[in-house]
């Protein structure tokens, strides 16, 4: 589904990513684990085509065997990339429902979620559909950000730490949604610091350090080394 | 006093129309369009030339001049502003400032600095009895049509998909692109529309204000204060602040004539001390 080949990125003179190569297969959930500043968010933004205004990049990114390296962000989105940014990206000037309806439905990828299905899955969004998006609680905003890209029928979700700062109950709920989405065939690349959570939802994990992928781990390895990883991540 | 308040609202209508365009352009492009006043002036001169050289009356000018200047704005955006946007904002600042000077001087060369006469449309030549006082019909028309224009823009912005995209792109341009919307495609028509609004205000001004090359430059400084008071990028704020500033300066004229020139800026300073993002601005705009 996603293939990244020797991707490097710079902020001015400072190199943030160093020849990152990785892949995510169709229907997989893969997490990126690493300390703050390891380059996780930069990597995700590069995949979405959002790094261009900050500095140069080299290397290639392909989605479903098509090279998307030079494409503008909106073209990547229309090819089925669903972006959930680290700050959730909920618009204050749009109502909850407008937030959901803003991104256009992409062609020929996953079955797009209907508004009805979004509201059935996330009842709080229906109750507050006329409220400004930012009047929702943090957890509800995260639901909104996820639902928004599911509604487009995106086939690969790029989620930047969806569980950050949320209560265990909501984290659990997000885990359920991710499993449901995976069962429907959607692929997910997830930034996650909560390694315990990561091991319960994901298939594989990449450990990023100083802009490089230093290790590729499976769930058993993550569970065995949970303490070591937590210590390394400084949590 | 009521009459003076009414004068203030009519003056505020021009501030509101100009601030509205300026605000939408700033929100969507991140460009402070210093040539906005020049397009207001060109609108008035457009009406003057249309009547003087082509015999087109006020109503036809009101219909034709704004779209024509809007198209000129679109060309401008495509040829110059778009290329300068990725650079430091200072480039577009200097470009639009220079453009304003060039446009002013071109008009000055052709028509000199003295004001050109422009008659009121005959249908609106009389006065209207507003109950408490009588008032020139044309001024009532200006107020009504400006309010109507602001309402139409408001409805389009809040109730249509285009408006939703403009709001989203104003708030978070980069994210809006990442959600599959080609923001660049909407930038050009929005710029053209903002310019057309300025020209519309210019045509409206022709029969009641002095039509001269500096009319825009005189007005635009106050309009910038209006936009800052309302909150940069806030459409509702610009309109509300436009009428409020008109009212404040008209009443200031009446009660504290000595302060009338600087009253608007005192108001701006007070608002900024109290709410740094303007009355209806959002703090996030400054991230």
UniProtKB/TrEMBL annotation, chain A:
For molecular function, the Gene Ontology terms on record are: ATP binding; ATP hydrolysis activity; branched-chain amino acid transmembrane transporter activity
Which PROSITE patterns does this entry report, sorted A to Z?
ABC_TRANSPORTER_1, ABC_TRANSPORTER_2
| Highest taxon of the lineage | Bacteria
Q: Which InterPro entries match?
A: AAA+_ATPase (IPR003593), ABC_transporter-like_ATP-bd (IPR003439), ABC_transporter-like_CS (IPR017871), BCAA_Transport_ATP-bd_LivF (IPR052156), P-loop_NTPase (IPR027417)
What GO biological process terms are annotated to this protein in UniProt? L-amino acid transport
PANTHER family tied to this protein: HIGH-AFFINITY BRANCHED-CHAIN AMINO ACID TRANSPORT ATP-BINDING PROTEIN LIVF
Query: Where does the ABC transporter domain lie?
Result: 2-235
Task: State the family named in the UniProt similarity comment for this chain.
Answer: Belongs to the ABC transporter superfamily.
Which keywords does this chain's UniProt record carry?
Amino-acid transport, ATP-binding, Nucleotide-binding, Transport
Q: What is this protein called?
A: ABC transporter ATP-binding protein
Q: What Pfam families has UniProt attached to this entry?
A: ABC_tran
According to its UniProt entry, this protein's organism is Nonomuraea deserti
TrEMBL record, chain B:
Report keywords, A-Z: Amino-acid transport, Cell membrane, Membrane, Transmembrane, Transmembrane helix, Transport
Membrane-crossing segments per the record: 12-36, 56-77, 89-107, 137-157, 186-207, 219-247, 254-274
Membrane topology, as annotated = Multi-pass membrane protein
GO biological process terms on file: amino acid transport
Q: Which family does it belong to?
A: Belongs to the binding-protein-dependent transport system permease family. LivHM subfamily.
Q: Where in the cell is it found?
A: Cell membrane
CDD domains according to UniProt: TM_PBP1_LivH_like
Name the source organism: Nonomuraea deserti
Output one GO MF annotation.
transmembrane transporter activity
Q: Which GO terms describe its cellular component?
A: plasma membrane
InterPro entries on file: ABC_transp_permease (IPR001851), BCAA_transport_permease (IPR052157)
* Record's protein name: Branched-chain amino acid ABC transporter permease
């Amino acid at each position: 589904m996603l293939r990244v080949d020797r991707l490097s990125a710079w902020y001015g003179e400072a190199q943030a990513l160093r020849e990152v190569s990785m892949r995510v297969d169709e229907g997989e959930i893969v997490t990126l684990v690493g300390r703050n500043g390891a380059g996780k968010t930069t990597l995700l933004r590069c995949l979405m085509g959002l790094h261009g205004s900050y500095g140069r990049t080299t290397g290639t990114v392909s989605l479903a065997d098509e090279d998307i390296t030079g494409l503008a962000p909106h073209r990547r989105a229309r090819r089925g990339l669903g972006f959930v940014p680290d700050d959730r990206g909920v618009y204050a000037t749009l109502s909850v429902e407008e937030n959901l309806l803003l991104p256009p439905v992409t062609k020929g990828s996953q079955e797009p979620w209907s508004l009805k299905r979004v509201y059935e899955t996330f009842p709080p969004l229906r109750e507050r559909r006329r409220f400004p998006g930012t009047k929702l609680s943090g957890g509800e905003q995260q639901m909104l950000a996820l639902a928004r890209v599911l509604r487009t029928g995106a086939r690969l979700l790029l989620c930047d730490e969806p569980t950050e700062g949320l209560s265990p109950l909501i984290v659990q709920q997000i885990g359920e949604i991710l499993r449901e989405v995976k069962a429907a065939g959607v692929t997910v690349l997830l930034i996650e610091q909560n390694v315990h959570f990561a091991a319960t939802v994901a298939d594989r994990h990449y450990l990023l350090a100083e802009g490089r992928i230093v290790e590729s781990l499976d769930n058993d390895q993550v569970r065995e080394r949970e303490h070591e990883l937590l210590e390394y991540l400084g949590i | 006093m009521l009459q003076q308040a009414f004068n203030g609202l009519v003056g505020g209508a021009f501030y509101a129309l100009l601030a509205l365009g300026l605000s939408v352009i700033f929100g969507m492009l991140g460009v402070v369009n210093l040539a906005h006043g020049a397009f207001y002036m060109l609108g008035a001169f457009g009406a003057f030339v249309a009547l003087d050289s082509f015999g087109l009356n006020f109503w036809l000018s009101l219909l034709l001049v704004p779209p024509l200047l809007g198209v000129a704005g679109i060309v401008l955006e495509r040829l110059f502003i778009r290329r300068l946007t990725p650079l430091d904002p200072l480039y577009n600042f200097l470009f639009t400032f220079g453009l304003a000077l060039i446009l002013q001087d071109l008009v000055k060369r052709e028509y000199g600095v003295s004001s050109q006469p422009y008659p009121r449309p005959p249908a609106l030549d009389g006065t209207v009895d507003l109950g408490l006082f009588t008032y020139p019909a044309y001024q009532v028309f200006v107020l009504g049509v400006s309010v109507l224009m602001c309402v139409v823009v408001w409805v389009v912005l809040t109730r249509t998909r285009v408006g939703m995209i403009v709001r989203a792109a104003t708030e978070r341009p980069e994210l809006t692109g990442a959600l599959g919307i080609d923001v660049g495609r909407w930038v050009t028509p929005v710029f053209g529309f903002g310019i057309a609004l300025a020209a519309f205000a210019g045509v409206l001004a022709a029969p009641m204000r002095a039509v001269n090359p500096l009319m825009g430059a005189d007005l635009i400084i106050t309009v910038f204060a209006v936009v800052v008071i309302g909150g940069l990028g806030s459409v509702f704020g610009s309109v509300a602040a436009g009428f409020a500033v008109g009212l404040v300066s008209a009443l200031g004229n009446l009660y504290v004539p000595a302060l009338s020139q600087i009253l608007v800026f005192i108001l701006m300073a007070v608002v900024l001390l109290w709410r740094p993002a303007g009355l209806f601005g959002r703090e996030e705009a400054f991230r």
